[in-house]
Amino acid sequence: MSGIKKLAGQTLWYGVPTIASRFLGYLMNMALPFFIALPEKTADLVQVYTIIPFLNVLYAYGLETAYFRFSQTHDKQKLYNTLSLSLLFSSIFFSIVLLLCQHSIVSAADLNNHPDYVLWMIAIIAVDNLNTLPFAKLRQENRPKRYAFARVAGIVLNVLVVILFMGVIPKILESSPDNFLGWFYSKDFGLGYYLLGNLCGSLFTLFVLSKEIKQVKIRFDFKLWKEVMRYSAPLIIVGLGGMINDVLSRLIYRHVVDLPQTQADHELGIFANIFRIALLITIMIQAFRMAAEPFFFNKSNDENAQKTYARIMKFFVIACCFMFLFIGLFLDAFRWIFITFANKRWAEGLEIVPLLALGNIFLGIYYNLSVWYKLTNKNMYGALITVGGAGITIALNILLIPKLHYTGAALATFSCYLFMMLSSYLLGQKYYPVPYPVKKLTAYLTLAVLIYLFHMGLVNIVTGSLLFSLGTGLVLFIFFSWFVSKIEAKELAKLPVVGKYFNR
């Protein structure tokens, strides 16, 4: 159990800054309805932040995972030097190519109203990519405190810049138009200040990581690089396929939905807002992955590694169930916030949030299951699974969005992640068997979904009462907590921090 304790502790260290930074960024994005009255005004910004993950995969080309894998068997400094130099020169190359293709990107992404967004996007991706290996180095060396500081520092500056240009300076200029701040502010730039804030945060993070960057020596091992490339090449397919599964619906939405441009932009803005609420689960998943990926590689040679992975999966699923219920049972609170403080149009489509949240749980389980092909060097299987998921995503988005609009996009996401989870489990049990408690995990997930459906039925009977909805939601949440604590009391007692509450 010591392995789980270590992972739990590291997850807290990596998780707290990740959750804090992601949540700050999440709150900043959730603030869009309060800055912008109409959802359609955010469509171009949604497009930019839909493209960025695709390009991040190309820029990084699987080197982060490769660093964890090869640091177990190769000289760490030589590996760090080689991969850092590879990343630097490839980033320069990709950025030049994107700059040369700027006009094509503007046209393809339908960004004719804001072509400057593409330049900001390229700058953000290039700088973020240079942060990749320093962060990986900190994770591999188990230095979560420094990781936490660097991660949070960047996002805090990002948020401060956005608040300054989107909130503070406009208010000052309203009362004092001749203020010197007018030299630094343009009303026409609008949501571009979100991109400016992002770039400032990324640059500051790069500065904070300067110590790790200075450790890079100008020494390139071509033989080692070729070995790493053979390992990481399938991961590029995995990454691109993953991005297709994650963002394709928002990327193509305006092109496949049969609506006037303004209405299509409106629905895209609404769908992106809905997606942000479901992303509360992915914040937790990301926090877990920060600690889990190097942990899995470091534990791979232990005699009881598979049993450890099984226990980790159980706790992960339980945590996901809690997040699902938090979102599903208190969805009316989000609705009330949008209606009361923003515009009621932002509250549209919230009914599909639980479906998206459940799909993201399947994605998180898939990430846990993917340890089998990373440890056995069978990354091509991961690529094939992801390609299969991408095929489902593409087909269902094209078929369902014209008929069901963003509900169709949510169904496509759900179906894709369900397929990836099941196929990875079946293949993993063949090539790297892990004794996952499948029946218990299925029971927890089923119970969480049934509790949500029961609550939804109660709310439909007693309509219009926010207090009833939140009150019954709280009771049901407490019930699930009590149920899990009774079933898993012995296991929970062994965990750090929370374990002391179960030893009584």
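Above is the first protein from milestone M3; the second protein from the same milestone is given next.
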Amino acid sequence: MNKIGFDNELYLKEQSSAILNRIKEHGFSKLYLEFGGKILFDYHAARVLPGFDPNVKMKLLERLKDSVEVLMCICAIDIEKKKLRADFGITYDADTLRTIDDFNEWGIKVRAVVITRFDGQPGAVSFMNKLQRRGVSVYTHKFTKGYPTDVDLIVSEEGYGANEYIETERPIVVVTGPGPGSGKLATCLSQLYHEHKRGIKATYAKFETFPIWNLPLQHPVNIAYEAATAELRDVNMLDHFHLDAYNQKAVNYNRDIEAFPLLKRIIERITGAPSFYKSPTDMGVNRAGFAIIDDEAVKEASKQEIIRRYFRYSCEYAMGLCDKDTVQRVELLMKDLSLTATDRKVVEPAREAANMAKEKNKGNKGIYSGAALELKDGTIITGYNSPLLHASSSVVLNAIKKLAGIPNNIDLLPGHILTSLMNFKKEILQGAPLSLDLEETLITLAISATTNPGAEAAMHKLKELAGCEIHLTHMPTPGDAAGLRKLGLNTTSDPDFASKALYIG
């Protein structure tokens, strides 16, 4: 259990050296570094590369902070659509605010926010006002004229020249933003255009983690990335430009490979010189593959992530959030690796717990939900729903009892508190579901801990659940999902609803 497959210190050394060399190797004075993926809380990387610190990229920037400043990009269309960051359940604009706060806490300077593809959208205007009134510099960039085919128009005063120049002071400018399509690349190239107009020798590179270019195309780590981006239709491919230039196999994904010829021409037009980049892999700064220290551990972790993605997309399909093709794409990836849903250890025990609830006629209003949680020592804990508790509440309480050495027959939540809370929900909140979701259960546990030493001991074991695996036979309610996320559990569920009601608040 929990084998370490990745060396963070080695990665920090390799990646920081590669970034600094990117500036030095051709005598550049400034590097615009596009950050793909998440700078903080990169839990996908942590799941497929066991040992990977979800915040290691921010730690790298902290090491370079005297040389680094940040441009945050967000697409006006995403603001208007209220697009969500799924792992936190918050909108992209809220995530931008949170990320600025994070950079400030780490002592890294945020120069400005760039609202891309801006066309006066009301939501974008409101967001801009909010930022400016809090002292944050904001720039707006419209859709670039001529993009993507007319290079002459793109690299002109009507194209990139129409964007306001953002003055920066430090040699490394990190350009990041929430999700794909935030306008990071366009912002980098726009700045490159303006820098060269001013006689500043600037260049561009992309900070990447996945796919890992020096792992085989069919390595589970790279397949897991393809599964993670199934809704985007990304496909990993051999970088034929890299193979032609260096006679070396390298893995990249289709969008970067397809965009490379155009991107190369744009950079050459901006700089007025042949590009030293011979492939899209060249453009990336990605040393993650050199920090893998246990390939077998990484392979197994990646296979488990592919199964998690299958469950996630299956649930999103049930909720109308993705199409069937997305689910089928991940199913094909699973077949390529001879994986099934039940290769996830907690799936079958959860389903057995649901069947047990039905046999014992426990459940709630004809719904029989089961849950299974795998502790870090490999022990499987199960639970099921009842008129008092959701299945996720039941299994978490059972798990912390086990960790605290408390017998199963000991109640952590006093009956009088449960009765009071349920009466409150019924009489005051009028019609709210009476059984406790996980978030409500955790609050009740904290109250109980003030007078119950057993509850207090169990409560302190909650932090040991972070990184554990859990499966539910029914999709979690908002309160369950929030609780599971806050505990740091790797959650999957079958694509079945936990209530016959159409609306679940």
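Note on the second protein: The chain has three domains: 27-209, 295-339, 345-493.
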